[in-house]
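Hey, quick one: can you model this chain's 3D structure?
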Amino acid sequence: MSKASLTAIVRYCDGLLRTHQSKDYDGAMNGLQVENGGSVTRIAAAVDASRATVKLAIAAGADLLVVHHGLFWRAAQPWTGKRYELLRLLLENNLAVYSSHLPLDAHPKLGNNSRLCAAMGLRNLRPFFVSHGRRIGFQCNAKITREDLARRLQSATGAKPLVIPGGPALCRRIGIVTGGAGGEVEQAAGEGIDTFITGEGPHWTYALAEELGINVLYGGHYATETFGVKALAEQLSRKFRVPWTFVDHPTGL
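Sure thing. Here's the predicted structure for all 253 residues.
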């Protein structure tokens, strides 16, 4: 059985993703969130760190779970009740957790945005959309009909997108930010795009998109963010010669 050092994997991830140089939402805590005994024999990748994905990772025989949405998002909470049960599950099964949120979104090769663009056949990408002091998405010039773009997005994610047809039928300047950037439609439009692809957004963005004259394609928060953790886990598998698996637990959101 191949075995790799958890410390070596964490050091590599931190350098590759610029984990400690990247700002994020308060409480996101990018990097190693839970240790194990020090060795890794199998990596599991998941979009979210939750009781369900932890159980799936354990069932897959993993001792490292790589996620996009980690365990921590707010001020420190007591490890009691369901949180204690989750902690005990991790510790009793020697499962480490490594999380990368905005650093993984923004990575030019392994990131959610880069990989989604590639899956949709979008090329000649330029940085787009500032969040927490850095551009995390991509934009490109193209001539693709709105209907074809929606088909490409569905083919890439496996989920039918919600389309707000507020802009031109022929999309010429497309911006992509995976996840929950829908609430920032006005910011995206301010960069001159006519079509915005993201995961999800609030109800009021429908009317706003029409007023701004842009198309918005909501591909699903979960569905648009499976790409980064898969790419990162595959990269780690090649470098450290340990197997990996994706544990799928879709939310439909």
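One thing worth noting: The chain has two domains: 4-100+226-245, 106-224.
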